[in-house]
DNA sequence: GGAACCTTTCAAAAAAACTGAATAGCCATG
DNA sequence: CATGGCTATTCAGTTTTTTTGAAAGGTTCC
């Protein structure tokens, strides 16, 4: 047994026959002569050992098996068409896959609708989301695990060779849970007062680079968590205190679950950035570079 | 532009080349001569207008576009193989789809693992689950909406022409919520006492047949619900009282959420049945007829 | 430098697909 | 019930596509 007798020509023939209603009409549509279709169909029927058409009546009627091959075959034909155009795309500079490293300061879910839109247009380009924290996000880019990263500035290593696109500014706010002792203080709170409570810190995911830490590190009590989401939840639960990015907690400030506290430590604003290998002209990379905006990331806050 | 230049032969060629590592080895595996592969590949490259192999080095290396076609092509080849064998199956008596009507007295989820097993074996045979209640389940079979039904006996219309397979016996228990006034009665409860409380009744889904009702109908107060699951939940919530099938409430009896009450009305045991059109020799039907057992339905209770 | 691979080219041969005319069946119409 | 118009199939011959094998040209490895 050599191999599968089902051919793409058969699938196209079945489709045309079903659409036009007869061998004759289908033949015309396919720029062939009816006997050519008979030949195509009979060949497969013989090789497969089953009937695709019921010839008892004089108008050929598809058998259930024929119908199955038609139905599934349409999907296969569609796949092959998509595949051909995707192959052309890739040959003309679209990457087969794009890996996006997202720093935990952003909500990866913000990118979902963007990725969905992209995938609609480019079904065979796989998009991978990878999570990182602080220097760890940069490390993804540096060690080749990601093609594009989304991070905050001030974290980039001194290394050359990376293109950086700055997006909107982000603000950090020092907040505590609504039940927290500091929540009631209306005046500026001193560092000593803050030192009474554990600080929640997001742990850098880097393996090789020097880990960075944001905010105070000279506090004695410190709880580290793997992601910004954990930090937010920990602070809401009252486990500790610390700065949180405004765009991630707007909702909780509005609802009152988190309360801002004035602190002496100046708020150092910083920027959301996109970064990628210099010289990477991939079109998928470019697409995301254009489409990832402050709005998409939820940074367009009126403060 | 006639049509897609990608052929199944190309996909098979790419697969072989990738597996064997060279045109020469692949050619051997495909019982061809190397130049035949060159021809196949070059033809598609020319028609598609892109390179599938990088010939700058001496050993041909697949381009990203070639790799994409290979990767997706493997899936397509697999699909076509499955399709061929499924078509043979259907031609030899397996139905393209099987519609199973399940009476609300059973938990449809009991069939899930069975359906999963079936689908593993017969990926192209679609299984539909349809819900019905009382005569409505029979109606599914009679009006051709279902090929196989799962019901309780005593509901079958007098009509001829249906094959019935009896499964295990099912018991009904009169139960009330744990907080219900009747829950504390340890002696037999009279009909008058029961009449104090609304009875929960599953409404027959039939459109054409004479609707049946199980249990008492001469009670004044009656709440009808669409499914057995609703009835169970209503009784747990204390909304009313009534008989419930033991196999659906074993768990709640054990946990004490439902409490059995002795009643004068005799418990009329009835049987789970499978029914289908006489003369239906479909193999999928047969498969389910064999595999749907008392155990699968959760009827194998030690009482 | 030579042996052992590899891929490609090319003309010829083989195989497959297609054609057109003839055949035969059904069905609606008059 | 005959006829014309539709259908699909058969078959022999033709065209197109695919395959072949020998020759040529490269790379790698020893």
From TrEMBL, chains A, B:
GO terms for molecular function: DNA-binding transcription factor activity; transcription cis-regulatory region binding. Residues 6-63 form the HTH lysR-type domain. Keywords: DNA-binding, Transcription, Transcription regulation. InterPro entries: LysR_HTH_N, LysR_subst-bd, WH-like_DNA-bd_sf, WH_DNA-bd_sf. The keyword Ion transport does not apply. The keyword Transcription applies. Gene3D superfamilies: Periplasmic binding protein-like II (3.40.190.10), Winged helix-like DNA-binding domain superfamily/Winged helix DNA-binding domain (1.10.10.10). It holds the Pfam family LysR_substrate. Coiled coil: none annotated. PANTHER family: HTH-TYPE TRANSCRIPTIONAL REGULATOR (PTHR30126), LYSR FAMILY TRANSCRIPTIONAL REGULATOR (PTHR30126:SF4). Belongs to the LysR transcriptional regulatory family. This is LysR family transcriptional regulator. It comes from Saccharospirillum salsuginis. The lineage of its organism: Bacteria, Pseudomonadati, Pseudomonadota, Gammaproteobacteria, Oceanospirillales.
